[in-house]
Structures are given as C-alpha cells and as structure tokens.
C-alpha cells in the first residue's frame, strides 16, 4: 500500500500551490514533506543500494521548493554534515546529502546532463525523480561541492564560498535566477550555515 501511495505523495509534494500566479519558487510545506520523507529515504536506499556517496539521509531535515510549472527540488541532508565537518574536510569526500528533482537535470558549462547518466527513482512507473548525491572535499584552501548520480563519475563540481547562513539547517537549498520561458534555474546550496555554492538546473523530460 505504501509503495502504491508514493507516486501520489510525491506529486502532492511538488504540486502544492502550483495554481498560484507567481513565478518565484515556493517552499514545499514542512508538514507535507514530513509525511513522506521517510518513505522517500527508504525508496532511495532500496533502489540505489550502492551509491557513489554513502549518504545517511536525515528525513527530519528534508525540505524543498517547487514552481507552478511542476518542477521542483527536495534535499535530504546527511545526518552528520556540519560546518565543522566541511571545514575539516581533506582529500577524502564528506557526504553532504541527497538532492531529488522533479523534471530537472544539471547543466554544466559544457552540456546538459542526459537522462541516461542519472540515477532515476522510479515510483511504480507513475513518477520518475532524478537523484543526485552530494559530497565535499578540500581543494587546497578551498572546499569543492561535487555532484554524482548514476555512478562514480562526477557530473560537476563547484567551489564553495564562505557565507554566513542558518546553522540550524545542515543543507539549505533555494531556487534562484528562475527563467520560466527557458525552464532554467540556479540552485543555491548552503552547507552548515557556513558555505555556499551554486548549481545550474534545466528542464528534463523523463
């Protein structure tokens, strides 16, 4: 029964408020997320038993945003990620979290990442969500956020900047610079309330 309910649950999560006229992304209400986040974590772990980054998702800290065009993002922070863990990162990667999207993929400076390179969570064939695994490691004095999906090959890497934020939110996420016509957006990722980086997202039909 739970498996059958998951596609509807995710559709509800991402579609909350989609009839509104504003172009700006809106936060998915926390009560909706908390209803379904534990199911989502179980789904990801079952469908991706050997992920490129061993993330321990914290369902209680999951949050996300959606647009009226029915595209959206959900982030599940790792249970152990903190500003200190990022500060002390060396050449070994520190797990940061899992990013799940609705109809969105990464766009790098060279290309749009195609569906065949993505880990896609399949909810009974009714809904498909690209899933990305996030990790940070040191690059000299800098910290680099690396994004993986289907296998161990990094899809993209972005340098994190020190930026004061909400320390109570292990991994923060916002959609910014939204271009509805081109179906593109930036995703601003903040980690431990101390670091920030930007990912490029674009529409993907699965």
Structural class based on helices, strands and sheet pairing? alpha+beta
**Portion in helices:** 10-25%
Largest sheet: 12 strands, antiparallel
Helix count, per DSSP?
3
Straight-line N-to-C gap: 25 Å
Tally of discrete structural domains: 1
Low-confidence stretches: 16-22
How many E-type strands?
12
Averaging pLDDT over every residue, what do you get? 88
% residues in beta strands: 35-45%
Based on Cα principal axes, name the global outline.
globular
Computed over alpha carbons, the radius of gyration is 16 Å
The secondary-structure element order is HEHEEHEEEEEEEEE
Description:
Strands 1, 2, 3, 4, 5, 6, 7, 8, 9, 10, 11 and 12 form a 12-stranded antiparallel beta sheet that branches. The protein has one domain (2-203). It is globular, with a radius of gyration of 16 Å. The protein is built from 3 helices and 12 strands, in the order αβαββαβββββββββ. The chain has helices at 2-15, 30-47, 83-87, and strands at residues 26-27, 63-66, 72-77, 94-102, 104-106, 119-123, 127-139, 142-148, 156-162, 171-179, 184-191, 195-203. The model is unreliable at 16-22 (pLDDT under 50). The relative contact order is 0.18. The protein is of the alpha+beta class and 206 residues long. Helix 1 packs across helix 2. Helices cover 18% and strands 40% of the residues. The two termini are 25 Å apart.
In short:
The chain is α+β, with helices and mostly antiparallel strands and 206 residues long. The protein has helices at 2-15, 30-47, 83-87; strands at 26-27, 63-66, 72-77, 94-102, 104-106, 119-123, 127-139, 142-148, 156-162, 171-179, 184-191, 195-203.
């Amino acid at each position: 029964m739970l498996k059958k309910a998951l596609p509807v649950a995710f559709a509800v999560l991402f579609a909350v408020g989609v009839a509104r006229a504003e172009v700006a992304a809106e936060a998915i209400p926390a009560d909706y997320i908390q209803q379904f986040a534990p199911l989502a974590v179980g789904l990801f772990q079952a469908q991706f038993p050997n992920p490129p980054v061993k993330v321990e998702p914290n369902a209680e800290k999951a949050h996300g945003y959606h647009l009226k065009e029915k595209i959206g993002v959900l982030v599940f922070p790792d249970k152990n990620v903190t500003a200190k863990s990022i500060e002390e990162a060396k050449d070994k990667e520190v797990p940061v979290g899992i990013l799940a999207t609705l109809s969105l993929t990464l766009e790098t400076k060279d290309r749009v990442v195609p569906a065949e390179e993505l880990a896609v969570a399949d909810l009974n064939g009714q809904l498909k969500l690209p899933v990305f695994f996030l990790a940070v490691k040191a690059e000299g004095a800098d910290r680099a956020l690396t994004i993986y999906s289907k296998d161990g090959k990094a899809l993209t890497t972005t340098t994190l900047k020190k930026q004061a934020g909400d320390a109570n939110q292990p991994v923060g996420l916002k959609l910014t610079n939204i271009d509805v016509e081109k179906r593109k957006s930036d995703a601003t990722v903040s980690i431990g309330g101390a670091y920030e980086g930007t990912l490029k997202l674009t529409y993907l039909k699965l």
